[in-house]
């Protein structure tokens, strides 16, 4: 697949998650709630997580307003962390952060991210990295708050 076709595929994945976000809304029963915003561009997110006693993310929802990158990243993140142990979710957050910083990620690790790999091109636009990482930072903040 040519680089141009791959770029178009990635854009399509991002727009699909933006137009039809997964897990958008609020959880009535949750044990982690985090509100974050990006004052630079106005993106904001409200993340709710239901984490069971075994440390597994049973459910994740988000709400907020923002650009296509911010909202699609939140959609993809909530989709991939459900059913994962907290440590696994944090590991994915770390991999995502490294990807956003332009660090080399091996193909096997990149495959673990699934659709999220579509956001890899954002790393070329420093002003947009905060958009992509907002939901992930909310996840990290919420989990740290829950663990304390």
Automatic annotation (TrEMBL):
Q: Which InterPro entries match?
A: NIF_FeS_clus_asmbl_NifU_N (IPR002871)
Q: Which CDD domains match?
A: IscU_like
Q: Which domain of life is it from?
A: Bacteria
User: Where's the NIF system FeS cluster assembly NifU N-terminal domain?
Assistant: 10-131
Which Gene3D superfamilies does the record match to this protein?
A: 3.90.1010.10
Q: Where are the transmembrane segments?
A: none
**Molecular function in Gene Ontology:** iron ion binding; iron-sulfur cluster binding
Name any Gene Ontology BP term: iron-sulfur cluster assembly
Record-linked Pfam families: NifU_N
The family annotation for this protein states: Belongs to the NifU family.
Question: What is this protein identified as?
Answer: SUF system NifU family Fe-S cluster assembly protein
